[in-house]
């Protein structure tokens, strides 16, 4: 598997699947989630509502992932995953790692060869960027998956630098 780091906007990525840092409601939010629904159009939200009604009445649990189509985005699918809110009192690293693993598992089910990830939980959910980068890269490196390219799409130069440092 090839791991690529790019600075940019995840909604512009020409990949099979983009991963959304969603919240458990699946009904949209700020950050990456807001950008994906804005750029992707109402079709994604419609599918999210249907998934809620059929499977996730109580919300998508933290660390899990589920796919919809990608509406007007260049990608074919959006994989929605719910990152943990960072906590100083409790180590939630395993839940963050689970987001990356579960997203790749869903990508395999879809037959997606190229997948773009944002730095899950490092925005509104408050995860320190260096630690978020370390968990993202170590988890993806160790994953057993048929995905051939994982592209981390970092929104700003500081996030890109943190991932560069962690990639080594
Ligand atoms: P979370 O709630 O999981 O923290 P956010 O969407 O708030 O999710 O932030 C996750 C990361 O994505 C942050 O580092 C944020 O700067 C970044 N980000 C925000 N918008 C975009 C975008 N359009 N493309 C890529 N990354 C983005």
For the record, what is the CATH homologous superfamily label?
A: Leucine Aminopeptidase, subunit E, domain 1
In CATH, the topology is named Leucine Aminopeptidase, subunit E, domain 1
Radius of gyration: 14 Å
The small molecules bound here are: adenosine-5'-diphosphate
Number of helices: 5
Query: What is the second-level CATH architecture?
Result: 3-Layer(aba) Sandwich
Q: What about the largest sheet? A: 6 strands, mixed
Number of domains: 1
Query: What is the average per-residue confidence, as pLDDT, rounded to a whole number?
Result: 98
Cα shape = globular
Strand content: 15-25%
> Tell me, what is the CATH class?
Alpha Beta
The strand count comes to 6
Structural class determined from secondary elements: alpha/beta
Q: What is the ordering of alpha helices and beta strands?
A: EEHHEEHEHEH
Head-to-tail CA distance between termini: 16 Å
């Amino acid at each position: 598997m090839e791991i690529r780091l790019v600075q940019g906007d995840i909604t512009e990525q020409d990949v099979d699947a983009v991963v959304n840092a969603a919240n458990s409601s699946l009904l949209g939010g700020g950050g990456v989630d807001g950008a994906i629904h804005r750029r992707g159009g109402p079709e994604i939200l419609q599918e999210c509502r249907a998934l809620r009604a059929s499977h996730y009445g109580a919300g998508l649990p933290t660390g899990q992932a589920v796919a919809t189509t990608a509406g007007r985005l260049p990608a074919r699918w959006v994989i929605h995953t719910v990152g943990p809110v960072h906590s100083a009192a409790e180590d939630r690293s395993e839940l963050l790692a689970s987001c990356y693993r579960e997203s790749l598992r869903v990508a395999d089910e879809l037959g997606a060869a190229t997948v773009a990830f944002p730095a899950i939980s490092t925005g509104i959910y408050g995860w320190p960027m260096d630690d978020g980068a370390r968990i993202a890269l170590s988890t993806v490196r160790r994953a057993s998956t048929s995905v051939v390219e994982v592209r981390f799409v970092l929104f700003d130069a500081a996030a890109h630098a943190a991932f560069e440092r962690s990639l080594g």
